[in-house]
Design brief:
elongated; 0% strand; 78% helix; 102 residues
């Protein structure tokens, strides 16, 4: 199980590096929410691009059948051999892009 501090530390570092640490906590949370949304959309689009049409249909059926997040993740890992690497790359690319905006 991941410790909450393990998850919040990279976010805090990113907030600091982007010069956003002086913003009110509510604004920081909104920005982190937006950035998370962008990353999740990128992961979804790349995932759908890599799945065959029949695998996309299988994924949609699992969602319709209320599959658990673990079941969905296992399905994707089974269909996309480098799924974890793909996700890490998307997050790393987003992070680098955000840091280069100075």
């Amino acid at each position: 199980m991941t410790d909450q501090n393990d998850q919040s530390q990279p976010q805090g570092t990113l907030v600091d590096e982007l010069g956003l640490s002086d913003l009110p906590e509510e604004k920081k949370e909104q920005l982190m929410g937006k950035m998370t949304e962008v990353i999740l959309k990128r992961i979804f689009l790349e995932t759908m691009y890599r799945l065959s049409e029949s695998d996309q249909a299988g994924y949609e059926k699992m969602i319709d059948d209320n599959a658990s997040p673990e079941e969905l993740e296992n399905f994707l890992k089974g269909k996309i051999p480098d799924y974890d690497d793909m996700v890490r790359k998307i997050v790393r690319d987003f992070d680098e892009k955000m840091r280069s905006l100075d």
